[in-house]
Structures are given as structure tokens and as C-alpha cells.
Design a protein that fits this description.
Chain B: Keywords: Cell membrane, Membrane, NAD, Quinone, Transmembrane, Transmembrane helix. With about 240 residues, chain B is mostly helical. Chain B has 10 helices and no strands. The chains are: A mainly alpha (about 675), B mainly alpha (about 240), C mainly alpha (about 140). The interface between B and C is large, with 119 and 87 residues.
């Protein structure tokens, strides 16, 4: 088979798997698991083959026009360069791991068939986005991901949190998608095509007339999908979904789509200095703010969610300094260790029966209950904190190194120096904070004191095996790949530079040490404040435990995001900032004041107008026939003589009229 | 006027000329007699429809119908006049009186004889009377009918015409009368049966209300059977 | 004789009967009024027959024949009509036409107030409603 055929099959197989899963899910439950896992794994194998054949050489291109569609043609086009090939492999790996993990995680879930089908569809959509060479086709995958995320985040729709979170995820990403769509049209109108190659050619020839406007419009969509400030608020709430879905969304698919899109069209963004600066500011605010917020969260998954936002900030930062190689490098390594983090967190939540770090810190021996999760999560947290030699170190240093190049002017990219400074400083601060919250998470989860953690038996093999599979790239990907990846990408050097490496690692170590000190200081208070609510059905499958944990967090601790735990080192470190960081710096309240309340006021105004004004007309229109009807009804007395009187009166009138007309009088 | 011309066009020229020779206000003896009897007839009719005593209304109806019979005679239709006397005065009015008795019509004035529809009825009646009289007078004020010569309505002439030209309608009419006879019987029987069954099903206790219709139920068949018999006999 | 005399008399008699039909409450009085109207028509028929047969326009004596038919049909009609009136009277306890308003909009059957038939008449709608409820 040609490379093109293989590439077409890559998104097609999970799609067919999803359709088949939806069709046979109820009638033949035995086929659901193979239909969920096998197409994804096959698609992973095909993606790997495509990547091997492509090999970082010239991009594979193929296009066919299905039908003429007006002025700007829409092609079914493939455009597979090094970025696409490697990202597709990442998507395949993570999706395959998630599917295998889900077979254990949602073992007893009655809605597993539809869940697995939606995950397959989600994977297929992401692969379509990755491989597509036409922006309209890309948009199809983009929107399919949006609706799939709605369904998957709302998987536990019995809980109000999940319902609200799924709606929020859908609406917020849609809020970004509207300007995104307009931007696409504007771009196509300028470039005369939706094909990425032609658009890049137009950019190179200076054929784009409004680069800033288009770039900013597109950035809105990217910010929504990739959860960048100010449209990131859906992502922490999306933790109400099952953990494998979180892993899928956060590691490889939905949030990666935005970064990947910018990476594909980076020359377009480079054409606008303003857009690059906006991107840099967006990245800086996102990464520092999310790192602070992560330090204050109590839900283990919300910590990871904010960390995802921060790491995505690194990627957009790399894009802001015009190096997509570094961005996609970080995307790959982050995809690996973040998927691992989420899947391990799922195991931990199952074992502990709670998702609250405060409750976990009052359990001892959790690491002995789930040794696989303990070791792999340690690895992943080290990667997250960018400690050498783990994967995160190399990719993050690549970002910081590029920023340094821009600042010092030694780079060859066209990014503004201001963007370089912003990204560099924010990146260093975030490195400190990232290490701090990673340390806090590790300490609270695995170094708790107090009662023995409950024993729920061994975790399913499907779940623990996957952790070790993902641990391999988390450890080794960075060190092995930073020399070869430039061949696949644009050729920029991705190796760590000395200055930033020393600075970044030093700050990370400092952050870890400070957190450890704070934990030692506050840990003694933990015994004084008993906390902890665990799931009522510890023997249920992991999904049920998690759903109960999410549903009870609010009632038990007063808030879905934080717990009143004085033993929390984050509380000591953040000081008065903790209160604000825990609620995401009140951004939801601001949105509520800015958008929700005006919309509600407008809605009530409209309903008032509808009720009082429009309906008055309607009632008035109905009243006239009703009066006429009443008048006519009054005539129908049932008295035959009245009827006959009227009949004769009419007859006389008619007869007289006829006579008058006939005689011409 | 046009109506007069239209009516005059119906008659041949000779009759037209004959009509022209006589004035409208030159009554002959027959006309005076007709007028006087007509006034009596009309007055009796008006009393019939206005009196508050129901039995008197029936009796005044006899006067009106008898007056009409005299009018038929004046119009030389003697057979019809006798039929009128026999059927209407002899049987129909008797039938009506039976009906009044069977429905327990009060003897003496009953103040509720006229309905609230009275004034509307009066208006309609007056309006139609005005319209009809206007049209009729306008059309026929100069039309003259010659009543001299052999009477056209003797029994012989009428019988000859009836059994020569009108045999088929006559026989059809006898079928109609038979149907009416059967219908009247069926109607009475059925009503009686329904009434009894209904009364039994409705209320177990025999109330005065239930008893009185049951008591009268058998009788109305008698005038019903009587009236077609009269007519058959007449012919 | 002028044709106008019988024609006008006929018209007036007809309208008198019309008034009676429209204004009388008792069904039997209405039937009497109908008789008056029919007779008015008969008079018209006879008068026109007398005119037209002399004028040799009509040799069939259709006017007189039709008058006979009308008389016969009127007799049949009065028989049937009285049978109906009696049936109604037995069922409803009244021969008043304006009490028979079952076809009125929003009809609520009202018994003839006060007299002995009140219980009988009010029992009918009750039975009817029961039948509807069970249907």
C-alpha cells in the first residue's frame, strides 16, 4: 500500500470502529472491547508506518476534490510532514493506552459501549486534524472533537458537576470557534484556497493582506481549544469526566489541536508581530497563573488540569518565539507524561476512594497499595518538573533555549525580542512553580500520615500495564530524541543550552525543596484536623469510585476545587494568594458578571417582551374572532322560530333585491 | 311597469285588450262578494294567529277555512270548495282539536301563547306582506279573468282532468298517503315503546310524570289512523 | 274579476300564517298556521287556474289538480305533525316549541319548571350524562 493509502486509513479505522461500536454496542456487548481497542491499535501501527516512511523528508501530499464547492475549493487533502507524522504517532499511542486502560477502568459501566465509541471517534477526529491538508477538513475534525468532548466530559451525567462541566466545555470552546471560523474564511478569501500548502505559499509571497486580524481571530479558536488564557476555564471543570477521558483530552487530542494548528500555520502568525506578542503574553499569563492555581487545588485531577494549562502555555510560548520544533517537541513529551499522570491518578483515586489530596495526606501506605502507580507517577512528576534526564527536561529546555536565543538575538527567527523576554521570564517562574506543585502532589498523595489506606485488592492489569508503557517515553523520549527530532522538524537545534538549563533546573530544584520544607512545617498539623471522605462503594469499578468522589467533594469540603486543610503546604507557600488561586483567580466570577448576567438579563427582558408585548398582540388577534364567535354563538339559541324568522327575513330581503334589480328600479 | 308587462305577456292579445277595457276600481258584483268574504277570511285568520285561547284559535281557523271554501266557489272551483270543507273543516280541524286536548291545552286564555319572538315575527310578516302585495299588485292590477261561461271547476271537469292527465301523480300521491299512514302509526308506537322503556329504566318508582304520558300513549294512534281514512274516503 | 283580489288575499293570508308560525309557542297552533299558509297557496293556485284555463293557456287544469294534491299532502302532513307533537309532549311534558332547545350552543337542558314533569325531564339529562361518562 502506498503511504497515502495508509495515511487515509489512519483516521478512518477508529471512525469505523466508533460506528461499529455504536451499532453493535447493545446487541453484542462481547464485541465492544475489541472494536474499541483494535482499530485504535491498528491505526497506531499504520501511523507509525507512515511516520517511518515519511522519515522527516519531504512532506507527503495528496489531494482530491470531491465536488466543486464554489469560489474557494474544498479538497480532501493530506499533508504529512514530520510534525504531522510524529503527532499522529503520539495520538495513536495515547489513544491506544487510554482504550486499553478504559477496559479496566470502566469495567462495570453500563454505558461503556457508547463511551468507547466516542473515544474512538474523538481519536479519529484528532487524527484527521493532524493529517488534514485542507483547513475546512481540519475544521470538521476540530468540531467533531468539540462535540465528543461534550459527551465524554458529561459521561457521569447523573452528577450536576458533570452536566455543568460538559456544557461549559462545549460553550467555551464554541466561543473560540466562532472567531476561528471567521478567521478561516478571511484567510481563505485572502489566500484563495483552504489548502495549507497554498496558504503558506501565499504567506511567503506576501499574499495575505490582513495577517494580524486573521491571526488574532484564529488565536481565539486556538485559545478555546488549547485552554489558553482567557478561555481556559473549561479545562479544570472538565475533570468531572472520567479519568481516561481527561488523559485523552489533555495529553494528545483536544488541547494539542490548538497548538498543532498554530504550529502548522506558524509562518502566517510570524507575519504579524502583534499576533506574536499577543501569543507571548497569552502564554505567559497562562503558564504563571495556572501554576499558581495548581498549587492551591485539592482535587488531584484539577492539579493536573492546571498543570496541563501551564504546559500548553510553554508550547504557545515556543510558538510565540517562532520555533514550532520546540513547541511540538514539548507537545510530544508532555503528551506522554501527562497521559501517564492522569492514568496513574485514576489508579490512585480508585485505590484511595477519594480524589482529595487532603484526604490522601491523611492515609498512610497508599504507595504500597499501588506500587505501579507510585513509581510511574514519580517518574512523570519528575518529567513534569523538568528534572534531568527525564523527557520534560529536554523539551522544556528547548523552549527556554529558543526564548533565550530570541532575547540574545542569536536566533534566526522573526519573533520580537519582547516576546522572547516575556516567554523566558514566565517560563523560568513557571519552572519554579511547576516543581513546587509537583512536589506537593507527590508528598500529599504518597507521603501521608494517619490511618492505613483501604485495601481494594490489585488494580486491573489493563490499567497498570499501560502505566509502564507510558513511563518509557516519559523517561527516555527527551534524551533520545532531541538530537534526531530536528531532522523531522524545521532543523532548529533542540538541545538544551547551558544557561537556561542551569537556571531552569536550579529553580525547579529550589521549588521542590521549598515545598518539602513547607510540607515538613505544616505536616504536623494534619493530625489535628481530621478530613477525608471516601467512596461508599469501594468494591465498584474505578469509574464508579471516581464518580462518587467527584460528586461528594463539594458537599464534603465545601468546594469542588479546594479543601480547608491547614496542613497543605500550598496554603503556606501562597499565603493570602491561596484563596484566589484556588478558584482560578475568580475568572469564572468575572465571566459570570460579564457574560452570564447580561445574557440572563437580556433573556429575561426578551421573555418579558415576549410575554407582555408579543403575546398581547397574539391575544388581541385571538380576541376579535372570539368576540365574533360569541356574537354568532348568541344567535344560536336553539329556538327554531328564531331561525325561521331569520330565514324568512333574509328571503324577503333577497326577493326584494332581485325584484328591484330585475325591474331596473 | 315591467312586471305588469311580463304578466300581460302571458295572455294573448284578446284577453289583454279585454283587461284594458275594465278599470281597476270598477268592481263587479262577484268582486264585492269576494272582497267581503275575503275580509272575513283574513280577519278570522288574524284572530286565529293572535288569540290567546287555544281552542278558540282552532274554531276561528274553521271560519277562515270555510271562508276560503266560499272564495273557491266564487272562483268557480266548486269541487275544490267541497273538498276544502270536507277535509279541512271536517277532519283537519277535528284532528287539531284532538291534538290540543291530548297535549292538555288549557281552556280559557293562556297568557304565554305567543313567544318572545313575536315582534320579530311581526316585522318579518309585515315586511313579506308588503313585498308580496307590492309585487302582486304591480304585476296583476290590470289582469282580468273571465269567470263567465261554463264553470271550469265542476266535478266532471276536474275528474276528467285528474284521471286523464294527472293519473300518474295521483297514484304516486296515494303511495305517499300510505307511507304517511304507516309513518304515523310507527311514530306513535315507537314513541310509546321508547317512553315506557325509558320510564322503566330511568326511575323505578312510578311517578305522576311517568304515569300521565303512559296513560295518553295509547290514544294518539286513533286520530292518526282516522285522518288518512278520511282522505281515502274523500277521494 | 280582477286577478289582483284573490292574489292579494292569498298574499295576506300567507303572511298571516307566517306570523303565526313565527310567533306561536304551542306546536299545534304552529301547525294551524301552517295550514293557513297552505290554504293561501291553494287560493293562489285556484285563482290562477281560473284565469289561465279561461285564457286557454292551460288546458290541463293543473292549478286545480295541484290544489287537490296540496290538500291531500297537507292532510298527511297534519297527521304526521300531530304524531310528532304528541310524541314530543309525552317525552318532554310540553308542546312549546321554544322549550325544545337541544341544539343550542352550550345547551343545558332545563326541566319545565315546577310542574309534575320536572323530575321526569331532569332525569333525562342525568341519565344521558351517566351514559356519556361510562362510554
Amino acid at each position: 500500500m502506498t503511504t497515502t493509502t495508509l495515511a487515509v486509513l489512519v483516521p478512518l479505522l477508529p471512525f469505523l470502529g466508533a460506528i461499529a461500536g455504536l451499532l453493535v454496542g447493545r446487541t453484542a456487548p462481547g464485541f465492544v472491547r475489541p472494536l474499541a481497542v483494535l482499530p485504535t491499535l491498528a491505526s497506531l501501527a499504520l501511523a507509525a508506518t507512515v511516520a517511518a516512511r515519511q522519515g522527516g523528508d519531504r512532506a507527503v501530499e495528496a489531494a482530491t476534490e470531491l465536488t466543486p464547492t464554489g469560489s474557494v475549493p474544498i479538497d480532501l487533502a493530506l499533508f504529512i510532514d514530520g510534525f504531522a507524522a510524529l503527532t499522529a504517532v503520539l495520538v495513536g499511542v495515547v489513544a491506544g493506552c487510554v482504550q486499553i486502560y478504559s477496559t479496566g477502568y470502566l469495567r462495570d459501566d453500563p454505558r461503556y459501549p457508547s463511551y468507547a465509541a466516542l473515544v474512538s471517534l474523538f481519536t479519529s477526529a484528532m487524527l484527521l486534524v493532524v493529517y488534514s491538508g485542507d483547513l475546512m477538513v481540519l475544521l470538521v475534525g476540530w468540531e467533531v472533537m468539540g462535540i465528543c468532548s461534550y459527551f465524554l466530559v458529561g459521561h457521569y451525567w447523573e452528577t450536576p458537576e458533570a452536566r455543568a462541566a460538559s456544557l461549559k466545555a462545549f460553550l467555551v470552546t464554541k466561543l473560540g470557534d466562532v472567531p476561528f471560523l471567521i478567521g478561516l474564511f478571511a484567510l481563505a478569501a485572502d489566500a484563495g484556497s483552504f489548502r495549507i500548502t497554498r496558504i503558506l505559499g501565499a504567506v511567503a509571497n506576501g499574499g495575505i493582506e490582513h495577517p494580524t486580524l486573521i491571526a488574532l481571530l484564529l488565536l481565539a479558536g486556538v485559545a478555546g481549544k488549547s485552554a489558553q488564557f482567557p478561555l481556559h476555564t473549561w479545562l479544570p471543570d472538565a475533570m468531572a469526566g472520567p479519568t481516561p477521558v481527561s488523559a485523552l483530552i489533555h495529553a494528545a487530542t483536544m488541547v494539542a489541536a490548538g497548538v498543532y494548528f498554530v504550529a502548522r500555520l506558524l509562518p502566517l502568525f510570524e507575519a504579524s508581530q502583534a499576533a506574536m506578542t499577543v501569543l507571548a503574553v497569552m502564554a505567559a499569563v497562562t503558564m504563571t497563573g495556572s501554576a499558581l492555581a495548581a498549587l492551591a487545588q485539592d482535587d488531584i485531577k484539577r492539579v493536573l488540569a492546571y498543570s496541563t494549562i501551564g504546559q500548553l502555555g510553554y508550547m504557545t510560548g515556543a510558538l510565540a518565539v517562532a520555533d514550532r520544533g520546540a513547541a511540538v517537541f514539548h507537545l510530544l513529551s508532555h503528551g506522554a507524561f501527562k497521559a501517564l499522570l492522569f492514568l496513574a491518578a485514576g489508579v490512585i483515586i480508585h485505590a484511595a476512594g477519594t480524589n482529595s489530596l487532603a484526604a490522601m495526606s491523611r492515609m498512610s501506605g497508599l504507595r504500597h497499595r499501588v506500587p505501579d502507580a507510585y513509581w510511574t507517577m514519580t517518574v512523570a512528576l519528575l518529567a513534569l518538573a523538568a528534572i534531568p534526564p527525564f523527557a520534560g527536561f529536554f523539551s522544556k529546555e528547548a523552549v527556554l533555549g529558543v526564548a533565550e536565543h530570541v532575547v540574545t538575538g542569536t536566533g534566526d527567527s522573526g519573533a520580537p525580542a519582547a516576546a522572547g523576554w516575556i516567554v523566558l521570564l514566565a517560563g523560568l517562574v513557571t519552572a519554579l512553580l511547576t516543581a513546587a506543585y509537583a512536589m506537593r502532589l507527590w508528598l500529599l498523595a504518597f507521603r501521608g500520615h494517619g490511618a492505613e489506606a483501604p485495601d481494594h485488592g490489585r488494580q486491573p492489569l489493563a490499567m497498570t500495564t499501560v502505566l509502564w508503557v507510558l513511563a518509557v517515553p516519559s523517561i527516555a523520549l527527551g534524551g533520545l530524541a532531541f538530537r534526531t527530532l530536528p531532522d523531522w522538524f524545521d532543523g532548529h537545534d533542540l538541545g538544551p543550552t547551558l544557561t537556561t538549563s542551569v537556571l531552569g533546573t536550579g529553580l525547579a530544584v529550589a521549588g521542590g525543596i521549598v515545598t518539602y520544607a513547607a510540607w515538613r512545617h505544616t505536616g504536623t498539623r494534619a493530625a489535628g484536623v481530621p478530613l477525608g471522605a471516601v467512596a461508599a462503594h469501594p468494591q465498584g469499578d474505578a469509574a464508579r469510585v471516581e464518580a462518587e468522589a467527584i460528586a461528594t467533594h463539594g458537599p464534603a469540603y465545601g468546594d469542588v476545587a479546594q479543601a480547608p486543610d491547614p496542613a497543605d503546604p500550598g496554603r503556606l507557600l501562597l499565603g493570602p494568594l491561596h484563596r484566589h488561586a484556588a478558584v482560578g483567580f475568580h475568572l469564572d466570577a468575572v465571566y459570570s458578571a460579564l457574560f452570564v448576567r447580561p445574557v440572563r438579563a437580556g433573556a429575561s427582558l426578551v421573555s418579558f417582551l415576549d410575554r407582555e408585548v408579543v403575546e398581547t398582540y397574539v391575544r388581541g388577534a385571538g380576541a376579535l374572532p372570539r368576540w365574533l364567535g360569541a356574537a354568532v354563538r348568541g344567535a344560536q339559541t336553539g329556538n327554531v322560530q328564531t331561525y325561521v324568522s331569520a330565514l324568512f327575513a333574509g328571503t324577503v330581503v333577497l326577493a326584494v333585491a332581485v325584484v328591484l334589480v330585475a325591474t331596473g328600479a | 311597469m315591467t312586471l305588469a308587462a311580463t304578466a300581460a305577456g302571458l295572455v294573448p292579445g284578446t284577453a289583454h285588450l279585454a283587461a284594458e277595457s275594465r278599470g281597476f276600481l270598477s268592481p263587479t258584483g262577484v268582486e264585492i262578494a269576494f272582497l267581503l268574504v275575503g275580509l272575513v277570511t283574513l280577519g278570522a285568520a288574524v284572530v286565529t294567529v293572535t288569540t290567546r285561547q287555544l281552542v278558540h284559535a282552532a274554531l276561528w281557523l274553521v271560519v277562515a277555512l270555510g271562508g276560503l271554501a266560499v272564495e273557491y266557489l266564487l272562483l268557480t272551483a266548486e269541487f275544490i270548495a267541497w273538498v276544502q270543507v270536507l277535509i279541512y273543516v271536517g277532519s283537519v280541524v277535528v284532528l287539531l282539536l284532538f291534538g290540543l286536548m291530548l297535549t292538555r291545552a288549557p281552556i280559557g286564555p293562556s297568557p304565554d301563547a305567543d313567544s318572545g319572538n313575536r315582534w320579530a315575527a311581526l316585522a318579518v310578516a309585515v315586511a313579506s306582506a308588503a313585498a308580496l302585495v307590492w309585487v302582486v299588485v304591480d304585476a296583476f292590477r290590470a289582469t282580468w279573468m273571465d269567470l263567465e261561461g261554463a264553470p271550469s271547476g265542476t266535478t266532471e271537469v276536474t275528474g276528467a282532468s285528474l284521471f286523464q292527465h294527472w293519473v300518474l301523480p295521483f297514484e304516486a300521491l296515494s303511495v305517499l298517503l300510505l307511507a304517511a299512514l304507516v309513518g304515523a302509526i310507527v311514530l306513535s308506537r315507537k314513541a310509546k315503546a321508547a317512553s315506557r322503556a325509558g320510564a322503566g329504566a330511568r326511575e323505578g318508582a312510578p311517578s305522576p310524570a311517568g304515569a300521565s304520558p303512559a296513560g295518553t300513549a295509547g290514544e294518539p294512534t286513533q286520530p292518526d289512523t282516522e285522518s288518512p281514512a278520511d282522505k281515502e274516503g274523500d277521494r | 274579476m280582477h286577478l289582483a283580489y284573490p292574489a292579494v288575499l292569498s298574499a295576506l293570508l300567507f303572511c298571516t300564517g307566517l306570523y303565526g308560525v313565527l310567533a306561536r309557542r304551542n306546536a299545534i297552533l304552529v301547525l294551524m298556521s301552517v295550514e293557513l299558509m297552505l290554504n293561501a297557496v291553494n287560493l293562489n293556485l285556484v285563482a290562477f287556474d281560473a284565469w289561465l284555463s279561461r285564457a286557454a293557456l292551460d288546458t290541463l287544469h293543473s292549478g286545480q289538480a295541484l290544489t287537490l294534491f296540496t290538500i291531500a299532502i297537507a292532510a298527511a302532513e297534519i297527521g304526521i305533525g300531530l304524531a310528532i307533537v304528541l310524541a314530543v309532549y309525552r317525552n318532554r311534558g310540553t308542546a312549546h316549541i321554544d322549550k325544545l332547545r337541544d341544539t343550542a350552543e352550550g345547551h343545558e337542558p332545563d326541566g319545565p319548571g315546577g310542574d309534575a314533569h320536572g323530575s321526569d325531564a331532569s332525569a333525562i339529562p342525568a341519565a344521558g350524562e351517566k351514559a356519556e361518562a361510562t362510554a
